Model the fold of this input.
Amino acid sequence: MPLYEHVFLARQDLAQAQVDALAENATTIITDNGGKVAKTETWGLRSLAYRIAKNRKAHYVMLDIDAPAAAVAELERQTGINEDVIRFMTIRVDEHETGPSAMMRRSERDRERGPRGDRGDRPDRGDRPDRAERAPREDVEA
Done:
């Protein structure tokens, strides 16, 4: 069976339990139509690049799906009807990504860096060996 990744954005005013219920509903649709969901990732409440239906944020959820095309078509049909889902996208992939997705790896890396994003490996401005000392300009009075 073909492999798909299905991502949907749920309204910002939903509780996490309601978002989980939407993901469970999508899983049920796929399994009832002869497919299976390999992995479900909740990426959390994230800001949108632009407002969609008066929403500035949305809950992001991704499903890795192994299902026939008819099951994916039914999932897209029912997702389009649902008023709590503001956007969705399904793409066909050659293989599913093993381990966490790029979005989950990014959030883990951000947590490791700390609250201010200090990297610690960058030298201070004055310690940069690639910048030579400038000689004072002669045409400017001090």
